[in-house]
Model the fold of this input.
Amino acid sequence: MIPFEKCPICGGKIVQKEVEKVLRGATNTAILKVKADVCQHCGERLYSQEDVRRFEQIRKKLKFSETADFKPIGQTFQVV
Done:
């Protein structure tokens, strides 16, 4: 992947890593593991266009609670 040789934010070195991406839609949240180019200096994450499109599709499903094909991993609570 690595379209940039250096981070576009700080100029740091870019390496490919598997990261967790948290996506939210309405009151629903999804966590997925994806590969991203990550700056070793500032931590900026760069995702492929394909992954960004996938994120948008998942956010839409979360917004409308279309989560039948997602695996539940627990519950989330808001502390007041």
User: Anything to note?
Assistant: The chain has a mean pLDDT of 93. The CA atoms of residues 25 and 62 lie 5 Å apart. Strands lie at 14-25, 28-39, 45-46.
